[in-house]
Amino acid sequence: MTMKKMLQYILLSVCLQTLTGCQKTAEIEDTDSVFEYREIYLPEQTTKDTKTLKLNLVDNEWGIWGHHLNKVLPKNPSLSVFATIGGRNNDEQFCFMSDKLFQYIEAYIHDNYGATRSQRFAILPNDNGLVCQCEQCRRIGCTTNNATPAVMHMLERLAHRFPSHTFFTSYYQTTRNVPAKPMPVNTGVLISAMDYDLNAKVSARELQFENLLRRWGGVTKNIYVWDYINNFDDYFTPFPVFNIMQRRFKLYAKTGVRGVFLNGSGSDYSTFSRLKTYVLAAMLRNPECDWKTVLEERCLEFYPVTGKLLAQYIMKQEEFVATKGKPLPLYEGVATALKNYLNEQDFVDFQNQLILLLPKTQGDERAEITRLNAALMLTRLEIRRLHGNIRGCGAMLEQLRRIIQNDVRIYSESYWTVESYIQDYQKMLQEAEEMKGKNLLQGLMLTPLTALDPDYSDISILTDGLAGIPSNYHCGQMISSADPSLKIAIPHVDGMKRLRVGLTYNAQFHIALPLSVTLMAGDSEIETIKPQQQGISGRYVAEFNIPASANRTLVLVITRNTEERTMAIDEVMGL
After folding, report:
1. Band of the pLDDT at 3, cuts 50, 70, 90?
2. What pLDDT digit, counting tens, does each position of 169-199 carry?
3. Does residue 476 contact residue 570 with C-beta atoms inside 8 Å?
4. DSSP character string of 426-489
5. Which of 82, 130, 145, 411 is most buried, judging by how many CB atoms fall within 10 Å of its CB?
6. How many CB atoms lie within 10 A of CB 495?
Protein backbone atom coordinates (compact mmCIF):
# COMPACT_ATOMS: atom_id res chain seq x y z
CA MET A 1 0.00 0.00 0.00
CA THR A 2 1.54 3.29 -0.99
CA MET A 3 1.74 6.15 1.46
CA LYS A 4 0.19 8.33 -1.25
CA LYS A 5 -2.95 6.21 -1.33
CA MET A 6 -3.30 6.27 2.42
CA LEU A 7 -2.83 10.01 2.57
CA GLN A 8 -5.45 10.61 -0.09
CA TYR A 9 -7.90 8.76 2.12
CA ILE A 10 -7.05 10.89 5.13
CA LEU A 11 -7.83 14.08 3.24
CA LEU A 12 -11.35 12.76 2.65
CA SER A 13 -12.04 12.76 6.37
CA VAL A 14 -14.12 15.92 6.12
CA CYS A 15 -16.71 13.68 4.48
CA LEU A 16 -16.88 11.08 7.25
CA GLN A 17 -20.31 9.59 7.79
CA THR A 18 -22.27 10.43 10.89
CA LEU A 19 -22.54 7.75 13.52
CA THR A 20 -25.26 5.22 12.77
CA GLY A 21 -27.12 3.00 15.18
CA CYS A 22 -28.25 3.56 18.74
CA GLN A 23 -27.74 7.07 20.06
CA LYS A 24 -26.63 6.03 23.50
CA THR A 25 -22.83 6.01 23.67
CA ALA A 26 -20.89 6.01 26.90
CA GLU A 27 -17.72 8.09 26.99
CA ILE A 28 -14.41 6.40 27.61
CA GLU A 29 -13.02 7.17 31.03
CA ASP A 30 -11.00 10.37 30.84
CA THR A 31 -7.66 9.14 32.18
CA ASP A 32 -4.15 9.96 31.03
CA SER A 33 -2.91 7.91 28.10
CA VAL A 34 0.63 7.07 27.09
CA PHE A 35 -0.31 8.27 23.59
CA GLU A 36 -0.85 12.00 23.18
CA TYR A 37 -2.21 11.54 19.65
CA ARG A 38 -4.83 8.85 18.92
CA GLU A 39 -6.76 8.63 15.67
CA ILE A 40 -8.88 5.83 14.18
CA TYR A 41 -9.73 6.30 10.53
CA LEU A 42 -13.14 4.61 10.36
CA PRO A 43 -16.62 5.97 9.48
CA GLU A 44 -17.63 6.48 13.09
CA GLN A 45 -14.90 9.04 13.82
CA THR A 46 -16.73 12.28 13.17
CA THR A 47 -16.02 15.47 15.06
CA LYS A 48 -18.74 14.54 17.58
CA ASP A 49 -17.37 11.08 18.21
CA THR A 50 -13.80 12.36 18.42
CA LYS A 51 -14.81 14.19 21.60
CA THR A 52 -16.82 11.26 22.95
CA LEU A 53 -14.05 8.72 22.42
CA LYS A 54 -11.16 11.04 23.36
CA LEU A 55 -9.65 10.74 19.88
CA ASN A 56 -7.86 13.16 17.57
CA LEU A 57 -8.92 14.20 14.08
CA VAL A 58 -6.50 15.12 11.33
CA ASP A 59 -8.59 18.04 10.03
CA ASN A 60 -8.42 19.74 13.40
CA GLU A 61 -4.78 19.26 14.23
CA TRP A 62 -2.64 19.22 11.08
CA GLY A 63 -1.88 22.31 9.02
CA ILE A 64 -0.16 20.22 6.34
CA TRP A 65 -0.82 16.48 6.15
CA GLY A 66 0.90 13.88 4.04
CA HIS A 67 2.39 14.46 0.63
CA HIS A 68 0.61 17.77 0.13
CA LEU A 69 3.38 20.27 0.51
CA ASN A 70 2.33 21.71 -2.85
CA LYS A 71 -0.62 23.39 -1.10
CA VAL A 72 1.79 26.10 0.15
CA LEU A 73 2.86 27.08 -3.37
CA PRO A 74 1.46 30.10 -5.23
CA LYS A 75 -0.05 29.74 -8.70
CA ASN A 76 3.27 30.30 -10.49
CA PRO A 77 5.98 29.32 -8.01
CA SER A 78 9.67 29.93 -8.47
CA LEU A 79 11.29 27.01 -10.26
CA SER A 80 13.93 26.97 -7.53
CA VAL A 81 11.51 25.11 -5.23
CA PHE A 82 11.67 22.03 -7.47
CA ALA A 83 14.28 19.31 -7.54
CA THR A 84 17.16 19.18 -9.97
CA ILE A 85 17.19 15.79 -11.68
CA GLY A 86 19.60 15.09 -14.52
CA GLY A 87 20.62 18.72 -14.57
CA ARG A 88 17.05 19.99 -15.06
CA ASN A 89 14.20 21.19 -12.87
CA ASN A 90 11.66 18.45 -12.14
CA ASP A 91 8.34 19.57 -10.63
CA GLU A 92 7.57 16.04 -9.42
CA GLN A 93 9.83 16.61 -6.41
CA PHE A 94 11.01 19.44 -4.15
CA CYS A 95 14.41 20.86 -3.33
CA PHE A 96 14.42 21.05 0.45
CA MET A 97 17.48 23.28 0.44
CA SER A 98 15.52 25.93 -1.48
CA ASP A 99 15.22 29.28 0.32
CA LYS A 100 12.16 30.03 -1.77
CA LEU A 101 10.43 26.84 -0.64
CA PHE A 102 11.13 27.80 2.96
CA GLN A 103 9.63 31.25 2.35
CA TYR A 104 6.46 29.76 0.82
CA ILE A 105 6.00 27.40 3.80
CA GLU A 106 6.74 30.22 6.23
CA ALA A 107 4.16 32.51 4.63
CA TYR A 108 1.53 29.74 4.53
CA ILE A 109 1.94 28.95 8.22
CA HIS A 110 2.05 32.61 9.27
CA ASP A 111 -1.02 33.56 7.23
CA ASN A 112 -3.18 30.56 8.18
CA TYR A 113 -2.06 29.58 11.69
CA GLY A 114 0.09 32.33 13.11
CA ALA A 115 3.20 31.81 15.17
CA THR A 116 1.75 31.12 18.60
CA ARG A 117 -0.99 28.48 18.33
CA SER A 118 0.16 24.87 18.38
CA GLN A 119 -0.31 22.94 15.15
CA ARG A 120 1.29 19.91 13.47
CA PHE A 121 2.80 20.02 9.97
CA ALA A 122 4.04 17.12 7.81
CA ILE A 123 7.00 18.25 5.69
CA LEU A 124 7.41 15.30 3.36
CA PRO A 125 8.83 14.73 -0.11
CA ASN A 126 6.35 13.86 -2.84
CA ASP A 127 5.45 10.17 -3.01
CA ASN A 128 8.14 8.98 -5.40
CA GLY A 129 11.79 7.94 -5.36
CA LEU A 130 13.21 11.19 -6.72
CA VAL A 131 15.83 13.14 -4.75
CA CYS A 132 17.10 16.60 -5.70
CA GLN A 133 20.67 16.45 -7.00
CA CYS A 134 21.50 20.16 -6.98
CA GLU A 135 24.89 21.20 -5.66
CA GLN A 136 23.50 22.24 -2.24
CA CYS A 137 21.62 18.97 -1.70
CA ARG A 138 24.60 16.86 -2.70
CA ARG A 139 26.91 18.93 -0.51
CA ILE A 140 24.75 18.38 2.56
CA GLY A 141 24.81 14.60 1.98
CA CYS A 142 21.82 13.71 -0.20
CA THR A 143 22.23 10.82 -2.63
CA THR A 144 20.03 9.58 -5.45
CA ASN A 145 17.91 7.62 -2.94
CA ASN A 146 18.38 9.54 0.33
CA ALA A 147 16.75 12.93 0.85
CA THR A 148 16.99 12.87 4.68
CA PRO A 149 19.80 15.47 5.07
CA ALA A 150 17.95 18.15 3.07
CA VAL A 151 14.54 17.36 4.60
CA MET A 152 16.01 17.59 8.09
CA HIS A 153 17.63 20.90 7.17
CA MET A 154 14.21 22.27 6.22
CA LEU A 155 12.61 20.85 9.39
CA GLU A 156 15.25 22.51 11.56
CA ARG A 157 14.73 25.90 9.88
CA LEU A 158 10.98 25.70 10.36
CA ALA A 159 11.28 24.46 13.96
CA HIS A 160 13.49 27.44 14.81
CA ARG A 161 11.16 29.89 13.04
CA PHE A 162 7.97 28.52 14.68
CA PRO A 163 8.82 27.11 18.12
CA SER A 164 5.12 26.69 19.04
CA HIS A 165 4.40 24.35 16.12
CA THR A 166 5.61 20.77 15.58
CA PHE A 167 7.09 19.60 12.26
CA PHE A 168 7.20 15.96 11.16
CA THR A 169 9.24 14.08 8.60
CA SER A 170 8.47 10.46 7.65
CA TYR A 171 10.17 7.10 7.67
CA TYR A 172 9.27 6.27 4.08
CA GLN A 173 10.69 6.07 0.55
CA THR A 174 13.67 8.50 0.39
CA THR A 175 13.58 9.42 4.10
CA ARG A 176 14.39 6.03 5.61
CA ASN A 177 17.70 7.15 7.13
CA VAL A 178 17.63 7.95 10.83
CA PRO A 179 19.28 11.37 11.35
CA ALA A 180 22.81 11.29 12.74
CA LYS A 181 22.11 13.89 15.45
CA PRO A 182 19.22 14.69 17.81
CA MET A 183 16.31 16.53 16.21
CA PRO A 184 14.87 19.80 17.58
CA VAL A 185 12.34 19.30 20.38
CA ASN A 186 9.45 20.49 18.20
CA THR A 187 10.08 18.03 15.38
CA GLY A 188 9.11 14.38 14.98
CA VAL A 189 8.65 11.44 12.64
CA LEU A 190 5.72 9.51 11.15
CA ILE A 191 6.68 5.83 10.91
CA SER A 192 4.62 3.44 8.80
CA ALA A 193 4.13 0.00 10.34
CA MET A 194 3.75 -1.58 6.89
CA ASP A 195 6.87 -3.72 7.43
CA TYR A 196 5.60 -4.94 10.82
CA ASP A 197 3.27 -7.81 9.94
CA LEU A 198 -0.11 -8.12 11.65
CA ASN A 199 0.60 -11.25 13.67
CA ALA A 200 -0.79 -12.42 16.99
CA LYS A 201 2.58 -13.99 17.78
CA VAL A 202 6.09 -12.60 18.08
CA SER A 203 7.83 -12.47 14.72
CA ALA A 204 11.22 -11.40 13.42
CA ARG A 205 9.60 -8.34 11.91
CA GLU A 206 8.30 -7.29 15.32
CA LEU A 207 11.82 -7.32 16.72
CA GLN A 208 13.07 -5.36 13.72
CA PHE A 209 10.32 -2.78 14.14
CA GLU A 210 11.05 -2.43 17.84
CA ASN A 211 14.69 -1.79 16.99
CA LEU A 212 13.64 0.84 14.45
CA LEU A 213 11.48 2.63 17.03
CA ARG A 214 14.34 2.66 19.50
CA ARG A 215 16.75 4.08 16.90
CA TRP A 216 14.35 6.92 16.14
CA GLY A 217 13.83 7.34 19.89
CA GLY A 218 17.48 8.24 20.12
CA VAL A 219 16.94 11.40 18.05
CA THR A 220 13.35 12.48 18.78
CA LYS A 221 10.67 12.06 21.42
CA ASN A 222 7.87 12.75 18.92
CA ILE A 223 7.36 9.36 17.27
CA TYR A 224 3.97 8.68 15.70
CA VAL A 225 3.20 5.24 14.25
CA TRP A 226 0.91 4.79 11.26
CA ASP A 227 -0.73 1.37 11.63
CA TYR A 228 -3.40 -0.64 9.76
CA ILE A 229 -6.70 -2.21 10.85
CA ASN A 230 -8.34 -3.36 7.59
CA ASN A 231 -7.84 -5.65 4.64
CA PHE A 232 -7.85 -2.86 2.06
CA ASP A 233 -8.98 -5.15 -0.75
CA ASP A 234 -11.98 -6.40 1.21
CA TYR A 235 -13.82 -4.23 3.72
CA PHE A 236 -16.67 -6.74 4.15
CA THR A 237 -14.99 -9.95 5.36
CA PRO A 238 -14.55 -9.73 9.17
CA PHE A 239 -10.95 -8.72 9.96
CA PRO A 240 -9.90 -9.55 13.55
CA VAL A 241 -7.36 -7.09 14.98
CA PHE A 242 -8.05 -6.70 18.70
CA ASN A 243 -5.46 -9.16 20.07
CA ILE A 244 -2.93 -8.04 17.51
CA MET A 245 -3.43 -4.33 18.18
CA GLN A 246 -3.19 -4.77 21.93
CA ARG A 247 0.22 -6.41 21.51
CA ARG A 248 1.32 -3.56 19.27
CA PHE A 249 0.02 -0.81 21.55
CA LYS A 250 1.96 -2.33 24.44
CA LEU A 251 5.11 -2.37 22.30
CA TYR A 252 4.56 1.24 21.23
CA ALA A 253 4.06 2.33 24.83
CA LYS A 254 7.20 0.48 25.91
CA THR A 255 9.33 2.10 23.22
CA GLY A 256 8.16 5.67 23.81
CA VAL A 257 5.79 6.14 20.87
CA ARG A 258 3.64 9.23 21.51
CA GLY A 259 1.08 9.01 18.72
CA VAL A 260 -0.84 6.27 16.89
CA PHE A 261 -2.84 6.68 13.71
CA LEU A 262 -4.91 3.62 12.77
CA ASN A 263 -5.61 3.56 9.05
CA GLY A 264 -8.92 1.85 8.31
CA SER A 265 -11.66 2.11 5.72
CA GLY A 266 -11.97 5.87 6.09
CA SER A 267 -15.46 7.13 5.33
CA ASP A 268 -16.41 3.78 3.74
CA TYR A 269 -18.38 1.06 5.46
CA SER A 270 -16.44 -1.89 6.84
CA THR A 271 -17.65 -4.82 8.91
CA PHE A 272 -17.83 -4.19 12.68
CA SER A 273 -16.36 -0.68 12.23
CA ARG A 274 -18.52 0.78 15.00
CA LEU A 275 -17.34 -1.80 17.52
CA LYS A 276 -13.76 -1.50 16.30
CA THR A 277 -13.80 2.24 16.84
CA TYR A 278 -15.02 1.94 20.41
CA VAL A 279 -12.82 -0.99 21.50
CA LEU A 280 -9.65 0.34 19.86
CA ALA A 281 -10.26 3.76 21.37
CA ALA A 282 -10.39 2.11 24.79
CA MET A 283 -7.14 0.28 24.13
CA LEU A 284 -5.45 3.46 22.95
CA ARG A 285 -6.46 5.06 26.23
CA ASN A 286 -5.12 2.07 28.15
CA PRO A 287 -3.20 -0.66 26.29
CA GLU A 288 -3.63 -2.95 29.32
CA CYS A 289 -7.44 -2.77 29.31
CA ASP A 290 -9.61 -5.90 29.09
CA TRP A 291 -10.89 -5.43 25.53
CA LYS A 292 -13.19 -8.44 25.73
CA THR A 293 -15.17 -6.85 28.56
CA VAL A 294 -15.33 -3.56 26.66
CA LEU A 295 -16.54 -5.42 23.55
CA GLU A 296 -19.25 -7.35 25.41
CA GLU A 297 -20.55 -4.19 27.11
CA ARG A 298 -20.70 -2.25 23.85
CA CYS A 299 -22.35 -5.13 21.97
CA LEU A 300 -25.12 -5.43 24.53
CA GLU A 301 -25.58 -1.65 24.64
CA PHE A 302 -25.70 -1.11 20.88
CA TYR A 303 -27.35 -4.41 19.83
CA PRO A 304 -29.85 -5.72 22.43
CA VAL A 305 -30.96 -8.71 20.31
CA THR A 306 -27.79 -9.65 18.37
CA GLY A 307 -25.10 -8.28 20.68
CA LYS A 308 -24.31 -11.55 22.46
CA LEU A 309 -23.91 -13.37 19.12
CA LEU A 310 -21.69 -10.59 17.72
CA ALA A 311 -19.39 -10.61 20.76
CA GLN A 312 -19.10 -14.41 20.75
CA TYR A 313 -18.24 -14.54 17.06
CA ILE A 314 -15.68 -11.74 17.22
CA MET A 315 -13.90 -13.37 20.18
CA LYS A 316 -14.02 -16.78 18.48
CA GLN A 317 -12.40 -15.34 15.36
CA GLU A 318 -9.73 -13.68 17.50
CA GLU A 319 -8.96 -17.06 19.08
CA PHE A 320 -8.79 -18.68 15.64
CA VAL A 321 -6.20 -16.12 14.49
CA ALA A 322 -4.13 -16.61 17.63
CA THR A 323 -4.14 -20.37 17.05
CA LYS A 324 -3.21 -20.10 13.37
CA GLY A 325 -0.31 -17.74 14.09
CA LYS A 326 -0.28 -16.43 10.54
CA PRO A 327 0.03 -12.74 9.61
CA LEU A 328 -3.09 -10.95 8.44
CA PRO A 329 -2.79 -9.73 4.84
CA LEU A 330 -3.56 -6.10 4.05
CA TYR A 331 -4.32 -6.77 0.37
CA GLU A 332 -5.93 -10.14 -0.33
CA GLY A 333 -9.21 -11.82 -1.14
CA VAL A 334 -11.41 -14.37 0.60
CA ALA A 335 -9.26 -17.34 -0.49
CA THR A 336 -6.37 -16.01 1.58
CA ALA A 337 -8.70 -15.02 4.42
CA LEU A 338 -9.79 -18.66 4.72
CA LYS A 339 -6.15 -19.70 5.11
CA ASN A 340 -5.16 -17.02 7.60
CA TYR A 341 -8.01 -15.60 9.64
CA LEU A 342 -11.45 -16.83 8.63
CA ASN A 343 -12.76 -20.19 9.82
CA GLU A 344 -15.33 -21.14 7.20
CA GLN A 345 -17.70 -23.14 9.38
CA ASP A 346 -17.66 -20.57 12.18
CA PHE A 347 -18.42 -17.83 9.68
CA VAL A 348 -21.29 -19.68 8.01
CA ASP A 349 -22.81 -20.62 11.37
CA PHE A 350 -22.53 -17.02 12.56
CA GLN A 351 -24.27 -15.58 9.53
CA ASN A 352 -27.01 -18.20 9.63
CA GLN A 353 -27.73 -17.35 13.28
CA LEU A 354 -27.64 -13.64 12.45
CA ILE A 355 -30.28 -14.15 9.76
CA LEU A 356 -32.52 -15.97 12.26
CA LEU A 357 -32.23 -13.12 14.79
CA LEU A 358 -32.73 -10.32 12.27
CA PRO A 359 -36.60 -10.39 12.35
CA LYS A 360 -36.48 -9.87 16.14
CA THR A 361 -34.48 -6.63 15.88
CA GLN A 362 -35.97 -3.16 15.77
CA GLY A 363 -35.07 0.39 14.81
CA ASP A 364 -31.37 1.24 14.58
CA GLU A 365 -30.28 -2.30 15.43
CA ARG A 366 -32.31 -3.71 12.55
CA ALA A 367 -30.84 -1.16 10.14
CA GLU A 368 -27.27 -1.97 11.17
CA ILE A 369 -27.71 -5.75 11.21
CA THR A 370 -29.48 -5.67 7.84
CA ARG A 371 -26.50 -3.84 6.40
CA LEU A 372 -24.04 -6.20 8.12
CA ASN A 373 -25.82 -9.27 6.77
CA ALA A 374 -25.79 -7.82 3.24
CA ALA A 375 -22.04 -7.14 3.46
CA LEU A 376 -21.33 -10.68 4.69
CA MET A 377 -23.05 -12.02 1.57
CA LEU A 378 -20.01 -11.02 -0.50
CA THR A 379 -17.83 -13.27 1.66
CA ARG A 380 -20.43 -16.05 1.46
CA LEU A 381 -20.58 -15.73 -2.34
CA GLU A 382 -16.80 -15.99 -2.61
CA ILE A 383 -16.74 -19.09 -0.42
CA ARG A 384 -19.36 -20.67 -2.69
CA ARG A 385 -17.39 -19.73 -5.82
CA LEU A 386 -14.17 -21.17 -4.38
CA HIS A 387 -15.95 -24.49 -3.78
CA GLY A 388 -17.59 -24.44 -7.20
CA ASN A 389 -20.99 -24.55 -5.49
CA ILE A 390 -23.01 -21.75 -7.11
CA ARG A 391 -26.48 -23.09 -6.38
CA GLY A 392 -28.60 -20.37 -4.77
CA CYS A 393 -26.02 -17.66 -5.45
CA GLY A 394 -28.52 -15.60 -7.45
CA ALA A 395 -30.59 -15.02 -4.32
CA MET A 396 -27.43 -14.17 -2.36
CA LEU A 397 -26.55 -11.54 -4.94
CA GLU A 398 -29.91 -9.88 -4.36
CA GLN A 399 -29.19 -9.87 -0.63
CA LEU A 400 -25.81 -8.26 -1.33
CA ARG A 401 -27.51 -5.64 -3.50
CA ARG A 402 -29.38 -4.42 -0.42
CA ILE A 403 -26.20 -2.82 0.87
CA ILE A 404 -26.26 -0.41 -2.07
CA GLN A 405 -29.71 0.72 -0.91
CA ASN A 406 -28.00 1.58 2.39
CA ASP A 407 -25.60 3.93 0.57
CA VAL A 408 -22.69 1.46 0.64
CA ARG A 409 -21.24 1.31 -2.85
CA ILE A 410 -17.59 0.23 -2.57
CA TYR A 411 -15.88 -2.55 -0.68
CA SER A 412 -12.18 -1.80 -1.12
CA GLU A 413 -9.60 0.97 -0.98
CA SER A 414 -9.30 0.72 -4.77
CA TYR A 415 -12.96 1.71 -5.19
CA TRP A 416 -14.11 -1.73 -6.32
CA THR A 417 -17.86 -1.31 -6.45
CA VAL A 418 -20.49 -3.69 -5.16
CA GLU A 419 -22.46 -3.13 -8.37
CA SER A 420 -19.52 -4.22 -10.57
CA TYR A 421 -19.00 -7.31 -8.43
CA ILE A 422 -22.68 -8.23 -8.74
CA GLN A 423 -22.69 -7.71 -12.51
CA ASP A 424 -19.52 -9.79 -12.99
CA TYR A 425 -20.83 -12.54 -10.73
CA GLN A 426 -24.14 -12.65 -12.62
CA LYS A 427 -22.24 -13.01 -15.91
CA MET A 428 -20.25 -15.86 -14.36
CA LEU A 429 -23.46 -17.61 -13.27
CA GLN A 430 -25.03 -17.12 -16.70
CA GLU A 431 -22.01 -18.53 -18.54
CA ALA A 432 -21.79 -21.48 -16.13
CA GLU A 433 -25.44 -22.28 -16.83
CA GLU A 434 -24.97 -21.98 -20.60
CA MET A 435 -21.90 -24.24 -20.54
CA LYS A 436 -23.37 -26.84 -18.22
CA GLY A 437 -22.46 -30.29 -19.53
CA LYS A 438 -20.65 -28.86 -22.57
CA ASN A 439 -17.17 -28.06 -21.22
CA LEU A 440 -15.12 -31.20 -21.84
CA LEU A 441 -12.17 -29.85 -19.80
CA GLN A 442 -14.13 -29.03 -16.65
CA GLY A 443 -12.58 -30.74 -13.66
CA LEU A 444 -9.51 -31.93 -15.60
CA MET A 445 -6.06 -30.78 -14.52
CA LEU A 446 -3.95 -28.79 -16.94
CA THR A 447 -0.16 -29.01 -16.79
CA PRO A 448 2.00 -25.88 -16.53
CA LEU A 449 5.17 -26.13 -18.61
CA THR A 450 6.65 -22.92 -17.22
CA ALA A 451 6.85 -21.78 -13.60
CA LEU A 452 3.70 -20.29 -12.07
CA ASP A 453 3.77 -17.23 -9.81
CA PRO A 454 4.07 -18.38 -6.16
CA ASP A 455 0.87 -16.64 -5.05
CA TYR A 456 -1.07 -17.98 -8.07
CA SER A 457 0.03 -21.58 -8.34
CA ASP A 458 -3.43 -23.18 -8.25
CA ILE A 459 -3.96 -24.02 -11.90
CA SER A 460 -7.18 -25.89 -11.12
CA ILE A 461 -9.13 -22.60 -11.24
CA LEU A 462 -8.64 -22.63 -15.03
CA THR A 463 -10.90 -25.65 -15.38
CA ASP A 464 -13.42 -25.13 -12.58
CA GLY A 465 -16.12 -24.06 -15.03
CA LEU A 466 -16.37 -20.56 -13.57
CA ALA A 467 -15.24 -17.39 -15.32
CA GLY A 468 -13.22 -14.83 -13.39
CA ILE A 469 -14.53 -11.52 -12.07
CA PRO A 470 -12.66 -8.77 -13.96
CA SER A 471 -13.43 -6.06 -11.41
CA ASN A 472 -11.59 -8.00 -8.66
CA TYR A 473 -8.37 -9.81 -9.54
CA HIS A 474 -8.64 -12.02 -6.44
CA CYS A 475 -11.70 -13.76 -7.87
CA GLY A 476 -11.12 -16.75 -10.15
CA GLN A 477 -8.03 -15.60 -12.02
CA MET A 478 -4.52 -16.98 -12.28
CA ILE A 479 -2.13 -14.01 -12.42
CA SER A 480 1.13 -14.58 -14.25
CA SER A 481 4.31 -12.57 -14.67
CA ALA A 482 5.90 -15.21 -16.93
CA ASP A 483 8.68 -13.79 -19.07
CA PRO A 484 8.19 -13.90 -21.94
CA SER A 485 5.52 -16.65 -22.18
CA LEU A 486 3.40 -18.94 -20.05
CA LYS A 487 3.05 -22.42 -21.51
CA ILE A 488 0.25 -24.79 -20.51
CA ALA A 489 -0.34 -28.33 -21.75
CA ILE A 490 -3.97 -29.19 -22.60
CA PRO A 491 -4.84 -32.92 -22.46
CA HIS A 492 -6.39 -34.50 -25.54
CA VAL A 493 -10.10 -35.22 -25.05
CA ASP A 494 -12.09 -37.18 -27.62
CA GLY A 495 -14.64 -35.01 -29.36
CA MET A 496 -13.07 -31.67 -28.43
CA LYS A 497 -13.28 -29.41 -31.50
CA ARG A 498 -12.83 -25.93 -30.04
CA LEU A 499 -10.80 -24.35 -27.27
CA ARG A 500 -11.80 -21.16 -25.46
CA VAL A 501 -9.27 -19.25 -23.36
CA GLY A 502 -10.68 -16.62 -20.98
CA LEU A 503 -8.45 -13.64 -20.20
CA THR A 504 -9.11 -10.77 -17.82
CA TYR A 505 -7.44 -7.37 -17.61
CA ASN A 506 -7.41 -4.39 -15.29
CA ALA A 507 -5.30 -1.38 -16.28
CA GLN A 508 -5.46 0.10 -12.79
CA PHE A 509 -3.34 -2.77 -11.49
CA HIS A 510 -1.19 -3.22 -14.62
CA ILE A 511 -2.87 -6.52 -15.45
CA ALA A 512 -2.90 -6.43 -19.24
CA LEU A 513 -4.05 -8.73 -21.98
CA PRO A 514 -1.21 -10.82 -23.43
CA LEU A 515 0.40 -9.78 -26.69
CA SER A 516 -0.65 -13.07 -28.21
CA VAL A 517 -2.18 -16.46 -27.48
CA THR A 518 -0.92 -19.34 -29.61
CA LEU A 519 -2.28 -22.88 -29.76
CA MET A 520 0.33 -25.50 -30.68
CA ALA A 521 0.09 -29.17 -31.60
CA GLY A 522 3.58 -30.55 -31.15
CA ASP A 523 5.88 -28.25 -33.11
CA SER A 524 3.07 -27.05 -35.36
CA GLU A 525 1.24 -23.82 -34.79
CA ILE A 526 -2.52 -24.13 -35.14
CA GLU A 527 -3.35 -20.45 -34.74
CA THR A 528 -2.21 -17.24 -33.06
CA ILE A 529 -4.66 -14.68 -31.71
CA LYS A 530 -3.69 -11.15 -30.70
CA PRO A 531 -6.23 -9.89 -28.12
CA GLN A 532 -7.40 -6.29 -28.29
CA GLN A 533 -8.05 -4.53 -24.99
CA GLN A 534 -11.11 -2.31 -24.66
CA GLY A 535 -11.62 -0.05 -21.67
CA ILE A 536 -9.93 -0.06 -18.27
CA SER A 537 -11.02 -3.54 -17.20
CA GLY A 538 -12.89 -6.44 -18.71
CA ARG A 539 -12.73 -9.95 -20.13
CA TYR A 540 -11.59 -11.30 -23.49
CA VAL A 541 -12.15 -14.81 -24.88
CA ALA A 542 -9.75 -16.23 -27.44
CA GLU A 543 -11.33 -19.13 -29.35
CA PHE A 544 -9.49 -21.71 -31.45
CA ASN A 545 -10.73 -24.39 -33.82
CA ILE A 546 -8.94 -27.69 -33.24
CA PRO A 547 -8.11 -29.65 -36.43
CA ALA A 548 -9.13 -33.30 -36.46
CA SER A 549 -5.47 -34.19 -37.02
CA ALA A 550 -4.50 -32.66 -33.66
CA ASN A 551 -5.17 -35.85 -31.72
CA ARG A 552 -2.58 -35.41 -29.00
CA THR A 553 -1.66 -33.01 -26.22
CA LEU A 554 -2.04 -29.36 -27.17
CA VAL A 555 0.04 -26.50 -25.78
CA LEU A 556 -1.10 -22.94 -25.10
CA VAL A 557 1.62 -20.32 -25.41
CA ILE A 558 0.49 -17.07 -23.78
CA THR A 559 2.98 -14.26 -24.40
CA ARG A 560 2.97 -11.43 -21.87
CA ASN A 561 3.14 -7.74 -22.66
CA THR A 562 6.38 -7.06 -20.76
CA GLU A 563 5.60 -3.35 -20.53
CA GLU A 564 2.95 -4.30 -17.97
CA ARG A 565 3.44 -6.20 -14.72
CA THR A 566 1.19 -9.20 -15.25
CA MET A 567 -1.51 -10.93 -17.26
CA ALA A 568 -4.44 -13.05 -16.08
CA ILE A 569 -6.04 -16.26 -17.34
CA ASP A 570 -9.39 -17.18 -15.82
CA GLU A 571 -10.76 -20.19 -17.67
CA VAL A 572 -9.86 -22.76 -20.34
CA MET A 573 -12.82 -24.56 -21.92
CA GLY A 574 -12.94 -27.44 -24.34
CA LEU A 575 -16.03 -27.75 -26.55
Report:
1. very low
2. 999 999 999 998 999 999 999 999 998 999 9
3. yes
4. HHHHHHHHHTTTT-TTTTPPPEESSPPPGGG--GGGGGSS----TT-TTSS-EEE--SSEEEEE
5. 411
6. 7
Spatial separation of the C-alpha atoms in residues 404 and 397, rounded to whole Å: 12
Asked whether the beta carbons of 93 and 128 are under 8 A apart, the reply is yes
Q: How far apart are CA 149 and CA 137, in angstroms?
A: 8
* Pair (394, 490) in one structural domain: no
**Claim to verify: residue 374 and residue 479 sit in the same structural domain:** no
- Where among 434, 466, 495 does a domain terminate? 434
334 backbone dihedrals φ, ψ, rounded to 5°: -65, -30
> pTM here?
0.89
Residue 569 shares a structural domain with residue 494: yes
Write out the residue range of the structural domain in which residue 531 sits: 447-574
Residue 323 burial (10 A CB sphere; 0-12, 13-18, 19+): exposed
**Chain segment 57-112, per-residue pLDDT in tens:** 888 899 998 889 999 999 999 999 999 999 999 999 999 999 999 999 999 999 99
Read off the pLDDT of residues 224-253 as tens digits, 9 standing for 90 and up.
999 999 999 999 999 999 999 999 999 999
Give domain status of residue 335, yes or no. Answer: yes
Distance CA 531, CA 513 (A): 7
Of 124, 157, 185, the residue at which a domain comes to its end is 185
- Give the closest residue to 233 by CA, choosing from 485, 466, 474: 474
List beta partners, residue 417: 410
